[in-house]
Each structure stands twice: as C-alpha cells, then as structure tokens.
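Note to self: the last two entries modelled the partners one at a time, which told us nothing about the interface. This time every component goes in together.
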Amino acid sequence: MARGAAAPWILVTVGQRLLPLPIRPAVAFDVGADAAVTVQLAQRWAVAAQAVLGEVTIVGQTDRGVAPWHHLASLARIVYATQHSIDVMLEVHGDVRDPRNEAGVAMSVTRRM
Amino acid sequence: MFPASMRPATRLATALVLGQMATARAEDLPPELVARPATLPDGMVALTLAGGYDSAHVLGIPVLSATTLGLLLQRGMTSRLELSLGTSFALHPDAGWTRDGSFALAYRAWQHDSLELAPALTVPLSFRSGADVTSTIVLGAGMRWHAAPRRRGSW
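The predicted structure of the combined assembly is written out below.
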C-alpha cells in the first residue's frame, strides 16, 4: 500500500468462530457469534477488544450452547509494531461475567521475515 | 553466508528455503495493524513466541493454574492463502511439550470498498497417545469492516 493512501483506523471483525464443529463425543454442528474491534491509536500502537458472544448447538447429541449472560469470553490487547518488523503484544483475557472463574494474561513477540 | 563446515547439499537446501521465504519483504506490511491484509503476502513468514498464565476455578475450587509458552508459524502460501502451524509447551506445572498443536488456513476471498471476507479453517491437533487426533474444528467467516478511514501518515 502506497504511503499517503487512505487507510482505516478502526477495524471490526466478526465471525471468526462462526461454525464450531465438535468431533467428539459425537459430530455436532454449532453456530457461534463473536466480534472484535481494533483501534489504531497511533502509527505503531493499536488496541483491540474481542468477545465471544455465544454459541448454539444446531445439530448434535450434546447441547454445547453458551449464552453471553452466563459466560462472556473476552480479551483486550495492546500491540506495538516496532521499526524492525516485530510486533509486541500484551493481552488480558477471561470470562468478563466472572473473572474469578477464568482469567489469564499473555505476552507475545511476532517477527516477520 | 553459510559456515564452511556446512555440507553443499545442506547449503543448497537452506538457500532454497530462505529464497522461498524471501519473496515478500517484511517491510512491505504497514506498521498500522488495521491497514494490514487479512493474510500474509505470498512468501512472507511470521514467527510468534507467546508466554502466558491462565487460571480457572469451578465452584471456587482451582482447576487450572498454568504457565505456558506458545509457538506459532504463519506463512503466506499465495497472495491470498495463509497457512499456520502452532504448538505449545507447559512451563509450570509439568514442564514439557503439551503434545497439542493446531493447523489453520485462511483465505482472502473477497474485498469491496471497506468490507473484506477472509474465511478460515482451524483444526486443533493432539499428539497424545490414546486421544483423538482432533477435537473441535472451527470454520470462521472472517468478515472485516474497515471503519472510519484515516489517511496514512497523519499520525
């Protein structure tokens, strides 16, 4: 992309887990909903938030449905893109409905070659 | 470029692999996360090292308290197709390879104005003995909407 061309500064992503297909104990067909928003704060700084809004079992012996008012798996992350094609990311994630039940932190370094 | 002790065949193989990897330059991607394509450009490789801590409780009883290290390799196979391979290592407790991994494909299928569609297939893999090879396969639509355009270089 040529420098100076129009570029977005907010990116909305949906449907990253649209169709979860459990294999065991029996093959099932679920439909899920999720959404993520990435905001570019500065040229090298971005923040993102993502939430898994729920899951419904359409076909299957076991109901794996998850309602957002029971569990809301979410994450928030901040990313810094260095000048050397390296991205550094810091993330907190968990169930925002009850963080005591499920929570975690992560840090990653990505090098592009 | 190569150590003198390296055998010619190894040198050739290494040069071919590096040559394959070098078809796209890492600097070709913009620093802005939101301006990058949904998949890596053809030939570009990205290696991610991640460390994390997770805890979980059920009815107030701790059932998980684990520190892990993850390794993810992504490669742009064509200008639209990206392949990912990942695995993880437990640091605490029971340090060692978790014998879990993942395989993923993402395809930049369609783009029109500010909308983009990049469906993905993610297959978890288990290399544990006596366990199923995979569990929940996920198909993602990967619908991306570039909202609120801003001109690059205006930061």
